[in-house]
Recover the amino acids of this structure.
């Protein structure tokens, strides 16, 4: 084998020169084919076919087409995932469905490591359920102890967006189900980043994001998974025409489509979704297991380099790579300013309050060289306090 | 003046040769600049700027940027419209907000001329409100008589999607408000098609669609309007992080952003939204009043031609153009087959069960010649029963 598969996957992306991109956990980069797909979708499918695109260009089926591709990455059976709407809205759908399936229970249990929007969405969903539910939020380490017979839904994000801490999805799902709770897993930082097997862990619901490790472009649609035996029992709260059993019959009453299709709502943003559809094809080149192994190798290397070069930074992520998602976070009191200086020098990570410098590792387009480059620039930024120089202040003032 | 303004607006679109497009009420055609905008958004803003696009490319503000452009077309004050999510989901937000503002009332009143998805969404929203609400659906002509003190919300689509019948938004809003009801207007077939003045009619809520007369592309995001004095009183049911007062503080509890911004939910589909943003600029070239006058002229001409040439078709739209949106519909028992044959000959309208042939008139890109061409081809299709010829069956079998 002359070329490593990850050299081949890297070649699928348009990466700006002079940049090391460690923020694919926020927004994945542009796959070359996605650029061509969007151009074709706009010029030919929209421009030439016009309304005929709904049938001739596969638009009507696109949410399921994309859903099937995502299903393969998260261990979901065919016909259990549909793409469309934002992650937040998919979570709202899942929560409402789960609460209606478990109507005798009153608690939604989540943790402080969840992405805040999930907690906000839960507030709205519980208000909508209007049956005196409680949103109980405990620290991540206390989740297991808080699972009891009052819990209707255990709603967690597998990978902590700040620290990369990984929940044990299999164990927590089993524990929750043993006391009669349902589970909703947010896979925002999991899908495309590490192997997920929803079928194996017997998850009830899952949602996730199209624009992070799946590289679908800014604001790419999210997705929702429902375990097949649940799907037919759900009356969607967001009951839109494309989730109707016969959308073009234009009946006056709602009848849910079969299975996962009922979670569709309105007309999906086809141009954005077409970018995601094509971006997912890169995953055909390599297994999630290989991606995970490489992600661990890259992050271990980065952590070792940073700890050797930058003693002022302290690891905020779990040290055990098996307990970490595909990112490494460091605490640093000047983290905000330091990250701005780092980005100005072409190494792009991001910052999360109060003091976390966050770096994501996406093996599809990151090389070992990138890791050494990034660690070297970070060392320079920290040791020379580059964010505190007149040159940097001047540069920031004009850009 | 050597060139008519509508020649200039027509030149803003990429229209396939040999096609007369009378289905812009379903999906508007591609503005030339939107094609360039999407290409730039993908290649430069996403590809080169990556995560920095959120600040440097205006992505974060885009839902409001687009909202302000739409506001000008529907008589809404600045700061009262935000784009994002589908029309269905925006309607869900509006309904939930209106029901909470009018908590003492139990009826949502709508009509059989409403687009069915609005009725489906209402079913879900009432279930969510869980306070024993009733969805009361009456024929369009019976709406005024059904407005009484039990009505919490009057929810109507201004222009009937099948027939183009136009509700009197001003009169019905005034009547509803006089008995203490709130109004939600679906502007799906109004925005960009005819003058709307939400401020003048004192509408409470409105929603609408980006991909019909606004030409934003397949599945372009919809929008929501809230009267400014209502907005601050609403706790959104879809409470996502981008509707939070401080999205990047990552607080664990939801605090709504001020005004219309609280109706944002998750991350919007930027690529699709950028097409809509640019498509809206075509409306800077001409007033909605001029568009309306031209739309009436075109539709009156078309109706006259069709009635003269095709006696088997009967007008399903109101004959008075002041009571009609920007479309003309005809009943014809072989309408489905005839429309297929018509489309095969390059005149694109659409069909709505059971027997309606529907034609939309978008003056931005339709000429008088188009109208005569379309009427002539329609005459040929009908008089020669072109859908019933061996040639047509053969053609349909292979395409």
């Amino acid at each position: 084998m002359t070329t490593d598969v990850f050299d081949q996957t890297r070649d699928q992306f348009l990466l700006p020169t002079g940049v090391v991109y460690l923020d694919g956990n926020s927004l994945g980069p542009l796959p070359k084919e996605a650029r061509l797909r969007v151009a074709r979708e706009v010029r030919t499918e929209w421009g030439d076919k016009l309304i005929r695109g709904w049938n001739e260009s596969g638009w009507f089926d696109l949410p399921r087409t994309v859903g099937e591709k995502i299903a393969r990455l998260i261990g979901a059976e065919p016909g259990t995932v549909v793409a469309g709407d934002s992650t937040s809205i998919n979570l709202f759908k899942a929560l409402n469905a789960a609460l209606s399936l478990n109507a005798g229970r009153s608690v939604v249990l989540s943790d402080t490591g969840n992405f805040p929007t999930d907690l906000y969405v839960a507030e709205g969903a519980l208000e909508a359920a209007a049956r005196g539910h409680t949103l109980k939020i405990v620290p991540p380490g206390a989740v297991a102890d808080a699972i009891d017979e009052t819990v209707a839904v255990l709603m967690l994000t597998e990978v902590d967006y700040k620290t990369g801490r990984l929940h044990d999805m299999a164990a927590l799902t089993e524990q929750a189900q043993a006391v009669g709770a349902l589970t909703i897993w947010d896979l925002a930082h999991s899908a495309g980043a590490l192997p997920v097997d929803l079928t194996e862990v017997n998850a009830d619901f899952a949602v996730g994001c199209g624009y992070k490790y799946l590289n679908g472009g800014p604001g790419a649609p999210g997705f929702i998974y429902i375990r097949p035996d649940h799907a037919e029992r759900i009356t969607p709260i967001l009951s839109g025409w494309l989730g109707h059993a016969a959308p073009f019959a234009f009946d006056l009453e709602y009848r849910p489509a079969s299975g996962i299709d009922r979670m569709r709502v309105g007309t999906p943003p086809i141009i954005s979704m077409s970018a995601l559809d094509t971006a997912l094809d890169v995953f055909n080149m390599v297994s999630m297991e290989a991606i995970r192994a490489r992600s661990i190798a890259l992050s271990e290397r980065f952590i070792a380099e940073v700890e050797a070069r930058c003693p002022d930074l302290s690891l905020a992520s779990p040290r055990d790579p098996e307990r970490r998602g595909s990112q490494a976070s460091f605490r640093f009191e000047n983290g905000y300013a330091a990250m701005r200086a780092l980005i100005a020098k072409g190494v792009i990570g991001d910052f999360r309050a109060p003091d976390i410098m966050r770096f994501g590792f996406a093996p599809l387009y990151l090389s070992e060289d990138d890791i050494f480059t990034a660690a070297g620039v970070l060392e320079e930024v920290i040791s020379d306090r580059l964010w505190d120089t007149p040159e940097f202040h001047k540069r920031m003032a004009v850009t």
